[in-house]
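Sat 14:20. Reprocessing the chain from the morning session after the first attempt stalled halfway. Input below, unchanged.
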Amino acid sequence: QQQQQQQHRQQQQQHHQKQKEQHQPLPQGRPPRVLCGHSNAVEGCALSADGRLAVSCSRDQTLMMWDPHQGLRTATLRGHTGWVWDCCFAPGEQYFLSASSDKTLRVWQVTDRVCVRVLRGHSNTVLRCCWSADGKTIFSAGREKRIRLWPGRIGQGEEGSSAGEASLPVDASAKSLCEEQSSETAGMVAALKQSSAQALGRLAELELALNKEKARSTALQSELEALQAERQHNEGERDSEVLLVTVNCKPISPSNSLFLSL
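Finished this time. C-alpha cells:
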C-alpha cells in the first residue's frame, strides 16, 4: 500500500509538472481577453487542464468551445432545448458534459464536437453536473431536489438512464440510499396528499358554514328592515290620530283647558 501511495504521489507530481510545462500564461502587461459570442447570459464555463481549451454554456441554449490563448471561438454546439446551466470536462478531457433546463444532460466529444450521449431521468431543470475522478460515474443535481448517478461509460448516440431507473454499475450502498430516500419521499408525498385532502375538506365545511351565516345574516337584515318600516308606519298613524284629536277637542273648563290626546 505504501508503494502504491508513493507511486500515486509521483504520478500526481509528474502530472502537475506536465501541466505547468504545457500551460502558457498570457504575456505580462496585456489586458485580459474578452470572449464574445453568446446571445444571452453565460451560466458556466470549464477550462481544460492544459489550458488550451475552454467551454462555456449559456441561456441561449448553446455551448461554445474556445481557444483561450488566441481568444477565438472554435465551435458552437446545439442540441439542448432549454437554458444550459453547467458544463464540465471528463477525466482525460476527451469528453465534456452539459446540464440544461430541458431536463437532460448531454455528453459531447471534444475532437468531433458532436453529442454522443443524452441522459434522461430528471423531472425538472438540471442545475449542476460533474464527473468522478475515475471517470466511472457522472453526478447531476436537479431542481426537483434529487442528485442522480449515471454510468460514466460513453456510447455513441445512446440514451442514458439514472441509477434510480435502471440496473447500472453503481455502488450498492449508494443505490440502497437512493431507494431508501425514494421510499421516504413517497411516504412524505402520501402524507402531504392526505393532509391536503383533510385541509380541503375542512375548507369546504368552513365555506358551507360561511354561506349559511351569510344567508342567515341576509334574512335577519330583511326582517330588521321590515320591522323598521312597520315601526315608521305605526308612528305615522299615531301622529295623525293625535293631531286629529287635538284639533277637534274643545276646552272642558274655561279656566283649565284640558285636551284629550291618544
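Helices lie at 2-22, 172-248.
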